[in-house]
Each structure stands twice: as structure tokens, then as C-alpha cells.
Design a protein that fits this description.
The chain is mostly helical. About 70% of the residues lie in helices and about 0% in strands. It has 18 helices and two strands. It has a two-stranded antiparallel ribbon with strand order 1-2. Strand 1 and strand 2 form a beta hairpin. The chain is globular.
Length: about 500
């Protein structure tokens, strides 16, 4: 019965428990050391600096001391990897650990005293740094390193532009960081990032199939208008009312994107051309319907929109007064997290996701293996449009409650940039959306300091351009390294034979 996997030490479950037990000491040692060091350094340094120094120092100490530590306490060796990979992992692990620790500490500091909160942050940061060093794969390390290099290059380019215009870049960046970390700004960043994340996931679904869905902008605006019109025209119980509004948006977005998918599989029309045209048609339809003689009513001064959705259709916001914010968090921020988790599960844990990725890699090979390529193209476009239909929901159900002329536009095109920056990965897209939203929010203070807020646009555009170039260079290097490794293994096999 030792091989049945029922939980005995000889089965797979027991093997997993044994592996977890062996992994615990290398993660726990730097975590505890980082917590203790954070508490001590906090006596003489600013709390955030103490945490960052403690996490980095404990991680580097664990790596340097690995040769003399007992095997049960030493972190895993990565000596078989090329220097570039080892360097990327050694740089990323403490950076990600410090970032995670600072987030934990900032949240814990809302309820606990500062020394305890930052000691907990040090504990979390030390554990994350050790875990990243242990589990970060080669390709993920290369991708994250490429994004990090691109961000650094974008900051340097922005600094050069600021210097050329006679502005001190350190002053500008300090003002942006100071404004972007205020409680109100943090909540606004989270609210805006939720809509950007949904837009980027919609684009990424198409990208994984090698489909360029440029029509997300038209899909979400048409879906938001239809959902707002339906929501304002019916009176239903709270949960049902919200479900009807969201279902309407999903259906309209999927249908509008499905038109482009049908044209591609039935007539061979490029989805780039068809989605651009459908964007223009969606704009014309909304302009025609948002009229006082049709769907619109007067809202305030010089503004018209659909009939307001009654309170039974609203999604309650989350009060953030406990952290000193006067702005509430959209209740549908959670929707973005659910969509991201569903996107990952679909791609990595379902047959459909495997077929989708296989078709994106090689349509001919997928078709030879029995995949209906036309069906996959149509399904991918419909699903992309369904997610696009959700883009306007956090704003519609959490704040405005109607679709009007001033409803946010352009989110679909920003989603393309964020999907590229996040490399179509759900976690990468989330970080890219937060980064983009931070730049948008933090740049608002620049006008009050006599600095053009378009500097943030320079950073955003530069980081997208550089991440594409840098990632391509790194990807080619990684592919060449894999080929070299295969060649060495084949050579060893020939010598041995």
C-alpha cells in the first residue's frame, strides 16, 4: 500500500510532504533573519529602508553561506545555469522580496505598531526572496529581467528629457512618488488598474492565439452602453439586477468581437482590419443612440447619457477611510482578480487552453493533431470580446451608474500596451497595470509644480518600446543557449557510445 498515494510516506502525497519539509528550512532561515534584522535596523533607519536592507542582506548572506551550511539549511545551488541567469535571479529575488515585504508592512501598519508591522514585513520579504531564488524558472527570470531593464531604460530616457527641458529629474520623480503614495492616490491607482487589467487580459487572450484584437476599445464601449441602458430600464432585486447588467455587457462584447472572428474564419478577413472597422462602427452606434430622442436623458449640465441605474443595480464600494482615504475602492476590483485567475486556469489547466496555445504556436501543427483551428479562432475572439465587455463594469456599477459622453475612452488601446508589457501573463499584466496606473495618477501633481505631466506618457511609451526590444534580445539569447546545451548533450552521448 506504499505506492497508492493515499497519504503514506511512500506515495506521492508523502513525497510531496517530504519535499515541503526539505524546502521549509532554506526559506524559514532567511525569513527569520530578515525579521530580526528589520527590527534592529528600525532603531536607526527609516522603517522602509530598514526592511529593504534587512531582506537583501539576509538573502545575500544565505546565498554566500550556502557552501558551509548544512544541506538541510542551504538554499539550492544554481551553478549549472549561465552567469546571466544566475545574475538575474540574484538581483530579482531580493528586489521582489523587499517589495513584497513593504506591501505587507504597509498593510500591517494600519493596525499594528510600526516595529511589529515592519518585522512582519521583513519576515514575509525574507520568505519571498528565498522562495523566488528557489523556484524562479530560467524563462521567467529572463522575462522579468527584460522588463526590469526596460523600466530602468525608460526612467533614464525620461530623466534625459527632463534635463533637456531644464527640470531636475530627481525633484520630479520625488514629487511623483510622494503624490502617488498618498492614501487617495493608492485607491485611485487600484480602481484604474482594475479596468486596465481587464482590458489587457482581453487583448492577451487574442495574443496567445496570435490574434491582434484591436477592437477591445469599441467592444467595451458598446457593451457598457448596452449594459447601462438595460440596467436603467429594468427594476430587479439587487443581486439579479447586477447579474443582468454584467451578463448584458459580456454578451454584447462577445458578439461584437465574434463578428471579427467570423469574418476571419469564413472570409479570411484580417482581424486587424475588421476590428478597426468595428471600432468605428461601434463609435457611430453609440453616438446615434446616446441622443435625447432615443436612449439618452439629460444628466447635469452639458451632458447626456443613459437613464441612471437604480441603486439595486449598483455594486457597493469598499470604504477606505481606515487608511485615511476619502476615495472608496470599487467593489468590482475583485472581478479583475477573478478574471485573472480564470484566465490562468483556462490556459494552464484545461484542454481548451492547451489547444489555444498550440494553435497560437503553429496552426498547421495543431490542425494536424486534430484541433479545429477555425473553431479555436472564433472561440478565442468571442472570449476576448466577453472579457472586453467587462472593462467598463467597475466604473459603471461602482461610480458613474450611467453611460454618458464623458465615459472613459481609449482603455482598449492602453490594454494592448499593458499586455505587451506584462508578456501576456496574468501576474505580469497585473504588475504592468499597477505601474501604468501609478504613472497616470502620480503625474497629476506635475502640473502644479510647473512640469508637463506628459513626462509620464514619455515613460509609458518608452517602457513599452524597450521591453519589446529587450525581451526579443533576451529570448534569442535564451533560445541560442538551449541549442548549445542540446549540442553539448548530443556530443557527450556520441562520446559515450
Amino acid at each position: 500500500m506504499t505506492g497508492t498515494g493515499t497519504g503514506t510516506e511512500g506515495g506521492p502525497v508523502g513525497a510531496r510532504r517530504g519535499a515541503a519539509a526539505r524546502a521549509a528550512p532554506p526559506i524559514a532561515v532567511p525569513a527569520v533573519a530578515a525579521a530580526a534584522a528589520t527590527w534592529l535596523l528600525d532603531l536607526s533607519l527609516i522603517a522602509a529602508a530598514a526592511l529593504a536592507v534587512a531582506v537583501a542582506a539576509s538573502f545575500l548572506a544565505a546565498v554566500l553561506a550556502a557552501p558551509v551550511l548544512p544541506r538541510a539549511l542551504a538554499p539550492p545551488a544554481r551553478g549549472g545555469e549561465p552567469p546571466l541567469i544566475r545574475g538575474a535571479v540574484l538581483a530579482l529575488a531580493p528586489l521582489l522580496g523587499a517589495a513584497a515585504g513593504l506591501v505587507v508592512a504597509a498593510v500591517a501598519d494600519l493596525w499594528l505598531i510600526e516595529p511589529v508591522a515592519y518585522a512582519l514585513g521583513g519576515l514575509a520579504g525574507g520568505a519571498v526572496a528565498a522562495l523566488v531564488h528557489r523556484t524562479l524558472t530560467r524563462m521567467l527570470a529572463l522575462a522579468m529581467a527584460a522588463v526590469g531593464v526596460a523600466v530602468v531604460l525608460a526612467v533614464l530616457v525620461t530623466a534625459a528629457v527632463l534635463v533637456a527641458t531644464g527640470v531636475d529629474p530627481l525633484f520630479a520623480f520625488a514629487e511623483m512618488v510622494g503624490h502617488g503614495t498618498k492614501p487617495d492616490s493608492i485607491v485611485n491607482i487600484a480602481n484604474n488598474a482594475s479596468t486596465l487589467y481587464l482590458s489587457a487580459v482581453a487583448v492577451a487572450i487574442g495574443f496567445r492565439m496570435r490574434l491582434f484584437n484591436i477592437g477591445v476599445d469599441g467592444q467595451y464601449r458598446l457593451a457598457a452602453m448596452a449594459a447601462a441602458a438595460v440596467g436603467g430600464a429594468v427594476a430587479l432585486p439587487p443581486v439579479l439586477h447586477q447579474a443582468v447588467v454584467i451578463a448584458t455587457a459580456v454578451a454584447v462584447g462577445g458578439l461584437w468581437a465574434g463578428l471579427a472572428g467570423f469574418l476571419k474564419v469564413a472570409r479570411g478577413v484580417s482581424e486587424v482590419i475588421s476590428t478597426i472597422m468595428l471600432n468605428a462602427i461601434a463609435t457611430g452606434i453609440t453616438a446615434y443612440l446616446i441622443n435625447v430622442d432615443r436612449l439618452a436623458v439629460e444628466i447635469g449640465t452639458n451632458n447626456i447619457g443613459t437613464s441612471p441605474i437604480p441603486p439595486s443595480g449598483w455594486v457597493p464600494s469598499v470604504p477606505m477611510g481606515f487608511m485615511g482615504s476619502r476615495v472608496d475602492l470599487f467593489g468590482l476590483v475583485l472581478l479583475a482578480a477573478v478574471v485573472g485567475a480564470g484566465y490562468w486556469w483556462m490556459l494552464e489547466r484545461t484542454r481548451f487552453g492547451f489547444d489555444l496555445r498550440a494553435t497560437g504556436q503553429s496552426a498547421t501543427a495543431a490542425q494536424a493533431s486534430g484541433v479545429d483551428v477555425k473553431k479555436m479562432v472564433l472561440a478565442a475572439m468571442v472570449i476576448s470580446g466577453m472579457v472586453a465587455g467587462l472593462v467598463g463594469m467597475p466604473q459603471l456599477l461602482g461610480d458613474s451608474h450611467y453611460y454618458a459622453l464623458d465615459f472613459p475612452t481609449g482603455l482598449g488601446f492602453i490594454g494592448i500596451a499593458i499586455a505587451l508589457l506584462g508578456r501576456n501573463h496574468p501576474v505580469g499584466i497585473a504588475l504592468a497595470a499597477l505601474f501604468w496606473s501609478f504613472l497616470d495618477q502620480a503625474s497629476l501633481v506635475l502640473d502644479f509644480r510647473g512640469i508637463p505631466k506628459e513626462m509620464a506618457v514619455v515613460t509609458q511609451a518608452t517602457v513599452v518600446l524597450t521591453v519589446v526590444v529587450v525581451y526579443e534580445v533576451v529570448h534569442r539569447w535564451g533560445r541560442r543557449y538551449e541549442q548549445q546545451q542540446v549540442g553539448r548533450e548530443l556530443g557527450r552521448a556520441e562520446v559515450a557510445s
